[in-house]
Write a structure and sequence with these properties.
The protein is mainly α and about 50 residues long. About 90% of the residues lie in helices and about 0% in strands. The protein has helices at about 1-45, 45-50.
Length: about 50
């Protein structure tokens, strides 16, 4: 009975890590687009506003 609980905990941990891994990949994939968008927004402002 206790062995089954250990297996369940192990599977839950693996599932958690897989989800975490995909979230990290998604974040790394999206981050550059957000950065590019911010840069475009800043460069469209006049020079005085850009410093802020």
């Amino acid at each position: 009975m206790q062995e089954e609980q250990k297996v369940k905990k192990g599977k839950n941990a693996i599932t958690f890590y897989i989800i975490f891994f995909f979230v990290m990949i998604a974040f790394i994939a999206i981050a550059p687009f957000i950065a590019i968008d911010n840069v475009k927004h800043k460069t469209s402002l006049p020079p005085k506003e850009r410093i802020k």
